[in-house]
Prior knowledge:
There is one protein chain. The protein has 99 residues and is α+β, with helices and mostly antiparallel strands. It has two helices and five strands. It has helices spanning 31-38, 85-97; strands at residues 5-14, 17-26, 53-56, 59-61, 74-78. It is elongated, with a radius of gyration of 17 Å. The N and C termini lie far apart (58 Å).
Amino acid sequence: MAADRLHVEVVYALPEKQRLIALDVPAGTTMLEAARESGIAEHFEGLDLERAAMGVFGKAEPAPAQRVLMDGERVEIYRPLKIDPKAARKARAQRAGKD
């Protein structure tokens, strides 16, 4: 791979459908730019890359439009949470206490 090109992956998953797209991008490409260039939004109705939370290898990135990628990184596009994790833990604890 030429030093001016990076090999990256972009991934998004729903419970019933997942997509991983590998692509080569110019050095200096941001997470958001790679996600756009991958065309992944075309595979998922309603996926708004401009508003979607993103991360790299499980670590959330607060500013995907500014975060420049390094060779070999995987851009993960996260779905919105349906329930607050704290509320989910509390509900599980309450259910467990009733047994």
